[in-house]
Amino acid sequence: MKEKIKIVPNGDSGMSIVFEKGISEDINSSVHHLAKGIAEADITGVVDIVPAYHTLLICYNPLDISYMTLKEQVMQVCEQDYSKSEKSRIVIHIPVLYGGEWGEDIETVASHNDLTIDEVISMHSSVMYRVYMLGFKPGFPYLGGMSDQLATPRLARPRLKILKGSVGIAGRQTGIYPQDSPGGWQLIGRTPLELVDWSKEELTIIEPGQYIKFDPIDKEGFEAIEEAVRLGTYTLDIECLEE
Amino acid sequence: MIVDILKGGFQSTIQDCGRNGYRSRGVTTAGAMDQQAYKIANVLVDNDLDAPCIEMAYGGVSLLFHGTMEVGVTGAANPTVNGKPVSANVTLYMIPGDLLEIKPAASGVYSYIAFSSTLLLDKVLESMSTDIKTGIGGYHGRQIQQGDQLLFEEQSHSCLQQRVMPTVFEGITEKETVIRILSGIEYDAFDSEGQGLLVSEVFEASGDCNRMAYRFKGPKINATSGYDILSDGLTTGTIQITESGELIVMLADCQPTGGYTRIGNVITVDLPKLVQLQPQTKVRFSLVSLEEAHMAMKQENKDFQKWMKTLKPRQKIEIKNESNYNMTINNKRYSVQIVEQQ
């Protein structure tokens, strides 16, 4: 790994690996590759690994491993070459029913940006969005890559309840609500997929470092997928792209 | 075996060590706020150190026992059994019909009840901790309340010699609690004046303190390079300074990632002291090194191990017959269990 990194304590049970500051695919991909490498190294005393935009937090138990030993082991992982694995990207396809009662604010987004509803749908669904990290709430993806032409301010009055699966826009960001929650995002559609499954060890269908693409579906498609998800027969559409 | 919840208290939840390993999926760790009092409660009843307990804020819980088991009550609690005051921090022996009530203590916030019998609840992602915000874990993902029933595995007959918490774990009441901290990851975002105020001034716990975070009133600490950072992993005990100059310590229920400037981190050993601060209590923060923080942690662990070594294990009893009696002699209450052994 050639990037300049800084390894610093983050409390007495945390260690942060800080890359060059900024929201960049390259930096973020180095963060996730290092996170993977550290997970694979299976270092005694490490209790959690938390990749973010340009930082990686390692939570450890100081009674099991000293800060210095952990730092040495992390540096060994850093020295390994992970560039090969960076050559493929995994794209998770998320079916979305745009507009109507599923995306009440799509007209607001369209008129704010002088676009037609169809243009909003085609612009929103033609891009591959990078999942920089998951956080804030279980399964909530921080996505990057939305066209600035879709940027719309948040609602002046947040809604008390937004249904899970809702896809929205807030400023220059787009995202999916994994659970019912209050929120101020402009809603443009909804996916019938369950983003979080508490009975599964991996918990979320989206992993940080992957990409997602929104596929427009119609009402019949939404209902069919919703039923398949309920019955547990739905197969997630995952694409692996070699670069 | 059933325990009826006659009163749920102000905020009582099932908690354990917390849900570690899922921050990268956006999952809050939750877990007992005062990990020391929580662990001691489990030791008092010979449990594994990660067994689930009831955590209470300001007590208020009443439990009716329909079976025999030992309980350990620790933290900011004044327990009574059938209306009579009993000691906290020792093994208590419950028999069918016993009513355990937890009154709040004069100082402190959180208290714990550990049960020697196994609590029959499902784990979510390897933990029984209640995450109220998400609505998962513990008792149906929520606080326990009047009318709830806790179900336990039947306990085989055994004998546990009474255990007493050593004095080394007693909280020391001071006029001004001193909380030891490490410099935070954005410590340099504050000028020397701000860094100085953090350790020279007195801060006061505000009324806005809960399982997510404690807010403190004090001098406004200015960050020279802004208050927002790119979202990053958060650890329990992180001290953030917001744009309004508020000092916030992130705790068990905090979100796993956050975006405010971090001036410091409360050391793990002092987190129990911090969470037991009632509103309006005054504190000072004192800067220590990472080595000192780890030394303190090792010392606490050593004290624990030393205590554990003195304890007699639970003894299994093969029995033919048993009978339980409540006896009052000179106004003192005794529970007597007569066991006819094989």
What would you say this structure looks like, in words?
The complex is a heterodimer of chains A (243) and B (342). Chain A folds into two domains: 6-81, Gyrase A, domain 2; 88-242, Cyclophilin, CATH 2.40.100.10. Chain A has five helices and 14 strands. In chain A, strands 5, 6, 7, 9, 10, 12, 13 and 14 form an eight-stranded mixed sheet that branches. Chain A has a four-stranded antiparallel sheet with strand order 1-2-4-3, covered by helices on one side. Chain A has 243 residues and is an alpha+beta fold. Chain A has helices at residues 25-41, 67-79, 106-112, 117-125, 219-231; strands at 6-9, 14-18, 46-51, 55-60, 88-98, 129-134, 141-144, 159-162, 166-170, 173-176, 181-183, 186-190, 211-216, 238-242. With 342 residues, chain B is mainly β. Chain B has helices spanning 35-44, 192-200, 271-275, 290-310, and strands at 2-8, 11-15, 53-57, 61-65, 69-75, 77-81, 84-85, 91-94, 99-104, 110-115, 149-151, 158-159, 177-183, 203-209, 213-217, 228-233, 238-241, 247-250, 257-266, 282-287, 315-316, 319-329, 332-341. In chain B, the strands form five sheets. In chain B, strands 13-19-17-18-15-14-20 form a seven-stranded mixed barrel. Chain B has a six-stranded antiparallel sheet with strand order 7-6-9-4-1-11, with no helix packed on it. Chain B folds into two domains: 2-165, no CATH class; 177-297, Cyclophilin-like (Cyclophilin), CATH 2.40.100. Chain B is built from four helices and 23 strands.
